[in-house]
Every structure is written in C-alpha cells, then in structure tokens.
Amino acid sequence: MLEIRYSEKKKMIIKKYNRVLFITNIFKYIPWQATAAMGYILVFSLLPAFQTLATAAFVDSADLVFKGEQAYESVFLPLFCIAASLVYQNMMPMVNNLISVSAQNQLRIVLKTQVVCKQTRLKYQYLENEDTCDLIGRVCQEIDRKFWEAYVNLLNGVRLGINIVSMIVIVMAHTWLGGVLIIAVSIPLLYLAELMGGSNYQMEKDVESLKRRYHYFGQILTEREYAYERKLFGYSSLIKDKYKKLFNQSYQVETKILRKSYTHMKSGSIITILIGMVIMAILLPSLERGNMSAGIYIGLVGAVFGLVQSMSWQMSSVVLGLARLKEYLKDYQAFMDMEEEDEACTEPWIDENFLFQSMEFRNVTFRYPGMGDDVLNNCSFQLNSEKTYAFVGANGAGKTTITKLIMGLYDTYEGEILINGRDIRTYGYAERKGMIAVAFQDFARYALPVDQNIHLGNMGEYDEGQVQKALDKVGLWDAVENMKEGIHTNLGKLEEESTDLSGGQWQRLEVARLLYARRAINILDEPTASLDPMAETRIYELFRSVSLGRFVIYITHRLGAARIADEILVLKDGRIAEKGSHDQLAALENGIYHAMYESQRKWYE
Ligand code: ADP
Question: For ligand 1, is residue 574 a contact (CB within 6 Å)?
C-alpha cells in the first residue's frame, strides 16, 4: 500500500518540483545572496571572451606601436582591461565565499525548520519503513549545503553555456569549421555526462544506506549507552567486523563513482585537446596569408584551450551536478509529498466528558507496509470497560501491533476498530492522543528533570502535586526526595549534576508518567520486560491497585503478570485463539495458554 502511494507520488514530482520552482524558492529564501551569486557568475561567464578580445587588442596595438604606426598610449586600454579581468578573477572568489557562507547559514535556518516540522508531522508508518527512512536521511542531511551547491551548480551551468557560446562566436568569426567541430564534440559529451550523473546518484543512494548502517555499528562501538554491555559481552570485535565490512562496501562504491567520473572527464579532455590542436592547425594558413592578425591568433589559442578545458572538466562536473540535482529534487518532492498526520503537532486533546465503554476489533487484517505476511489476520475481539484485559502470546505474535493500531499509528488495515462503537479513524488524532496512554517496552529515557520526565506524559497544565502523587504511587517518591534537587534533579548522563536511575526505577518512572497522564484507556505494553518475572508481576499489580477506575490493557508474554487481568486473550497466527480468565484457560488441557503456563510455572515458584 505504502509502495503504491509512494510511487504515485514519485510520478508527480517531476512535474511539480522542477528546477524552476527550485530557483524560485532559492530567491525566496536567500534573495540577496542568490542575486549576488548570480551577478558574480554572469560576469565570470563573459570573462574568457573579454580576455580573448583584450589580449588580441593588446598584442595588435603593441605590434603597431613597435612598428611606429600607433601611439604608445594605445596599449593602455587593452592592458587595463586585462589587468581588471585578472583582478576580478583573483579577488572575487573570496567575496563569493563570504556570500556562500551567509547563504548556507540562512538556508540552514529556513530549510532545517521546514524539514524538521515535516518530519514531526509525518505519518508514523514512514518512520518504521527502511526505504522511507533512507529517503528522509538523503533529503534532510546537510540540506542547506545540498541546496546551495545545487544552485551554484545551476549558475555554473549558465556560466558555462554563455562561456562556450561566446567563445564559439569568436572562433566561428574566424573559422566556422572550428566552431562546428566544437559543437559536434560537446553534444555527445553533454549526453554522456547527463547519463553518468543519473547513475552516480543511484550509487550515492546505496552509499547513504550503507553509511546509515555502519554509523549504527559505530555508535555501538563508541557510545556510552552501550559501554556496559560492550565491556560485559566483549562483542567489540564482532561489531568491528560488521562495521568494517559495511565501511569497505561503501568505500568501494565511492571509489567506483570517483573512478567513473575521472575516466570520463579524462577521456573527454583528451578528445577536446585534440580538437583544440586541429583548430589551431586550421587557423595557421589564415595567419600566414595575413587574413588574421597575430593578436587574434594568440587570443584564439588561449581561448580555444580555455574552452577545451571548460568543456572537458567543468562541463562534465556541471552536467553531473545537474543530473544529481534532478534526482535530489525527486527525492525532495517525494519527501514533501509524504502524508502527514492531521494535528500531529497539536497537544493531546482531553475530552473531560469522554467515558470509555468498549473497544472492538472487527475482522482486522493488517500487514506492515512493504511486508509479505499479515501480522493480524481477521482478528476480532471486544473489550468492555468493566473488566481489565491482558493480551498474551509468543514474541512476534502481534501484541504490540495491536497497540499501534489502537493508537492509530497505522490506518492501512482492513476491517474496523471501534471505540465506544465508533470507528477510530473518525476520531481526530489529538482526540485519540487524549484518550489513550501507553507505556512501551522500549520507552524513551529523557535526560530531563524528574518532574519534566513525568509531565511529558500529559503536556497540559503542570501540576507538581500530581507529579508527587504519581511518584509516590509507584514507590519512587523516597528515592526522588533524597536526590540533590528532589523532583527537579536532572536524570540521565547529559548534565554534570545529573543522577541516573536503575533500569527498574526508570520503568517505575514510566508507569508514573502513565498515571500522571490520566487517560481513559491505558496500555502497559511490557514496559517491565527487563525486570524479572516476579518484579514484573509486582509492577502490574501495583498499577492495577493505583489505577482504579481506569480501563487497562496489559500486554505481556509472561503469564504471571497476565493472571491479574479479568480476562486473557491469547494471540496466535494473527487472531485471538483463546479467551477467558486465568483459571479457565489454565484448565484447558490442550490449550495454548495451558502449555505456556506449564512451561513458565517454574519462574514463579
Ligand atoms: P509482539 O509484540 O507480540 O512481540 P509485534 O507486534 O511487535 O509482536 O510484531 C509482530 C510481527 O510484526 C513480528 O513478526 C515483527 O517482526 C513484525 N513487525 C513489527 N514491527 C514491524 C515493522 N515496523 N515493520 C515490519 N514488520 C514489523
């Protein structure tokens, strides 16, 4: 589903975000820098023709001065023109560098804000999909540099165009055959460069994907978060091998790109040098016959070889850059076209009058975008507010997937999910966020003060009394009270004065966040998985005792914790295979629950 929508979007891109729109946006974001860079490049583009004519004028006037046919002063003007063009050529790049720094700073502010906002509004499904994650990385990393370089490259294309045309005009004024030869060689060179630009961008995509992966292994090898297990397990050499393998792969692709570009440019330059020699030979008889002045001949020699240089090196790199820009704009548009969640950035909206009554899955079938197998297959069940429920099942059975669907993170399922008899897709995103709170297994540990860590669960008004109450209920209050700055103590390892919590304390904090959120529907999705089974059961029992009156779903693969629920739903092969109280299910001799319970019984003895 995601793929289809994604490729449909991709087709629209070429029409929508083309180079014209790109340039319009550049002028909107950085008006003066874009204008200054354009002026600089335009003057630069006429410089070779100007220098050729000035050199020719200088040589011819000097010749006439030496023959005594002209006054000495006549060389001053051409000499001044040559000097002025050289000063421009040498001084202006520095000014241009300053423009470039200012432009990139400004672009960083504008574009980074844009893409960060877009990222926060993206539908959740994109953030879990490898292809779209790669795309997001490609578009957003160094976006300011990419935009600026693309713009400069476009300008360089214009410069080169003017440069080549003006030089061809001068060459053709003296030898039309030379001009035709230059044009004949430039067309296939241009075409080749364009082809190579496209294929290079494809290879660069592979490199970025490889880089993302080896950066991950790099983090494992260097970051503090992994330090403890790194020492304990001594896995560094295994991870190093993985890192090295991916790094080498990426290096090989990068070398291939460079090698291709280099051989292409080199072969182009050899051909064009030969063309330059031929043109010089063609012009020799005119010089001999006196149809052409020595000044023009010398000016043309410089010009033709300058042109050859431009055509072989600069043209390839400009066209390569243009092809790369085309591909980048496709990606950029695909990123901008990714669907957004309505109200993604709005705070949860809590309807004080909302009273939870029931939740129902009606024949829900779901698979993750781009995946082959259904995770849920015609899954149906109904939950009522009077009871508490536990979902159990082996790892990978689909328990967390059910949580994600309830939260509305994916809406690409078949069937219906109803809350109080109403399709969840008809509730607003902010409204749904205000209804449901989840404590996940891989919850985030924020390097923020204790109270803010809890306040994150309910971004409405801050209530210190409620924070304390929540901490007290999960048995964390004594520990927090003894910290240097009480509930304002920074947690984690970011600040010097921070205090870090143990794994179990973090989990209690997560449960406190859930309590503070005071939502109608609460889901505990194994936030206690790293505790031992008995401790997990205790936390679940604790939650049950402190969350009286609220609807709670427990998700676990440990049955000791599940037994505290009134009703247990056993998930297997994408649907509910058994349903009942602990005692009922444990008594089913050949049941799945019975078998799981027997194999786990020793954990609790
Ligand atoms: P459980 O919570 O029961 O352990 P999950 O709901 O997390 O199981 O996963 C169910 C299945 O869906 C597993 O096979 C898992 O590999 C797969 N899965 C989970 N998340 C994704 C995802 N983002 N993309 C693709 N497959 C996924």
Answer: no
Task: Give 416's strand partners.
Answer: 362
Phi and psi, residue 94, nearest 5°: -65, -45
CB 313 within 8 A of CB 70: no
Q: How many CA atoms within 13 Å lie on the side-chain side of 234?
A: 0
What pLDDT was estimated at residue 13? 39
**DSSP-derived 3-state class of residue 359:** strand
Q: Which two tokens stand for residue 468?
A: 């304390």
> Which residue(s) pair with 423 in the sheet?
418
Pocket test for ligand 1, best of 1, 133, 401 (most atoms within 8 A of CB): 401
pLDDT in tens, 486-505: 888 888 776 677 788 887 78
Q: How far is the CA of 400 from the centre of ligand 1 (A)?
A: 7
Query: Ligand 1 pocket, 556 CB below 6 A?
Result: no
Considering the chain, what is the average pLDDT of its residues? 82
Whether 366 shows a pLDDT value over 70: the answer reads: yes
Choose which residue among 365, 374, 377, 400 to substitute to test ligand 1 binding: the one with the highest number of ligand atoms within 8 A of its C-beta.
400
Which residues have C-beta within 8 Å of that of residue 30, sequence separation ≥ 6?
Answer: 102, 103, 106, 107, 110
State how far the Cα of 324 lies from the Cα of 22, in Å rounded to an integer.
14
Q: Which of 375, 395, 525, 576 to probe ligand 1 with, by most ligand atoms within 8 A of CB? A: 375
Q: Which of 82-91, 131-140, 297-306, 428-437 has the lowest mean pLDDT?
A: 297-306
Tracing tokens 């399922």 back to the chain, one arrives at 413
Phi, psi values for residue 90, rounded to 5°: -95, -30
Plot region of 52 (φ>0 → left; ψ -120 to 50 → alpha; else → beta): alpha
- What is the pLDDT at residue 7? 42
**Nearest-atom index, ligand 1, CA of 393:** 3
Residues 220-261 pLDDT 10s: 888 777 777 777 777 778 888 888 999 999 899 888 888 877
C-alpha 593 – ligand 1 centre gap (Å): 21
Note the Cα 581 to chain centre separation in Å: 47
Give the tens place of pLDDT for each residue, 374-432. 999 999 999 999 888 999 988 888 999 999 999 888 888 999 999 999 999 888 888 88
Q: Of 128, 127, 122, which Cα lies nearest the Cα of 340?
A: 122
Q: How far apart are CA 183 and CA 176, in angstroms?
A: 11
Angle at 334 between CA 330 and CA 337, to 5 degrees: 135
Handedness of CA 157, 159, 161, 164 (dihedral sign): negative
Query: pLDDT tens-digit profile of 557-586?
Result: 777 777 888 899 999 989 999 999 988 998
Q: Which helix (H) or strand (E) holds 576?
A: strand 575-580
The helix (run of H) or strand (run of E) holding residue 391 is strand 389-392
Burial of 25-36, coded b for 16+ CB within 10 Å and e otherwise, reads bbeebbeebbeb
372 CB under 6 A from ligand 1? no
Q: How far from the centroid of its chain's Cα atoms is residue 324's Cα?
A: 17
- Give 354 Cα–ligand 1 centroid separation in angstroms: 31
Give the distance (Å) from ligand 1 centre to CA of residue 401. 6
